[in-house]
Amino acid sequence: MKKLFTAAPLALAIAATPALAQSTEDTLERMQQQLNAMQQQLNSAKDTGIRFNGFFSTGFARASNDAGYAGITDESEVADLSLFALQGTFDVTQKSQIVMQLVGRGEDDWEPQVEWAYLSHRPTNNLQIRAGKMRIPFFMYSDSLEVGYAQPWARPPQSVYGPIAVTSYVGADASYNLNFDNSSLTATGFTGFTDEDGNSGDVQLRNVAGVNLTWTDYVWTLRGVAATAEADIDATRLGALAAQSGITLPPGITQLADGDRGNFFGLGASYDDGSWQIIGEVTRVEVDGKFADTDSAYLSVGHRFGSWTPYVAAGWTESKDDDERTGFFIPGAVPESILNYQRNEYSIGTRWDITPGVAIKADITHVRGLEKGYGNLNTAYMLAEDPDSTNVYTVKIDSAF
Question: Which of 91, 145, 192, 375 could, after both became Cys, cross-link 341 (CB 3.0–4.6 A)?
Fold first, then answer.
């Protein structure tokens, strides 16, 4: 009996072996089927030619007074620096695609706005043609103007990026790329029109035409741009200021440009060897009429220490045609010279890449030299208080995915 009981478990195990083997084979087969199904789904998604990415920013900025530099006051909220964007790329053919970008901003109650919506076609590897709504390519960071993660600073230097508030246009461009042994040159011609809210009010640019050249050896980048357009600029904010004073301005008195010729010129350079990051731009804006012609420049120097990138930046901007603004918008109260300005800005900050795709930034900017005029600032406060400087403190989180 003892041998019988001893042999019984062995017999049961031997008998169960085929069943266990069959069960294992079934499990492996089901797993293989699931893997095949997942692979088919991935291939199907890839075959559709649809790709999505996006970016997100939030933060808080506060100023030492209500001068309104970069739109920041002593009552600024988190919503002022918050935005979320989703960009979709849809392949039409192997050479053509549609790109659309939707942006929701906290200051606009997160209402989605179409920032990009264009068709791109590549007849050859070196030539690209686009048509639709796109970023107007005035600056080195035009295409990534709101993609904070792509920039070293908490905000683009306002000395250069502030005077021109127009960011997008509807039209077409064509880019041709020349590849050399260790560098490349891209030439882009663009044309179109725009109608947006600017710093002073409504800005319309018609018959925009321009060209930019960008050369890079992937350490140095040099860029030049020249553009011209017919400009209509209505300083509606001055009308609102007059209304606060109980004054109704005559129609057309705040028209700073009415079909006048406007020109833009810019030069930019950057150096990035993986450790040092040096960026600078110089721009000139010329508009016939009362709108201020401006010369602007900035220089930024940063150095990477692992995930930390501290930086310093200095900027300057000045109106150059002050003698054309000698009258009054509001007789006896608000002179046209409030559109004049000259200011210097100094920033110190740091960027901390806490993980791939997420960066935290902190910045302190000191602005002075406001005595000449109040262009692009909070006019009502400047007229009442006449401060000689302002400080802006910023903490921000930028993400891209």
Answer: 375
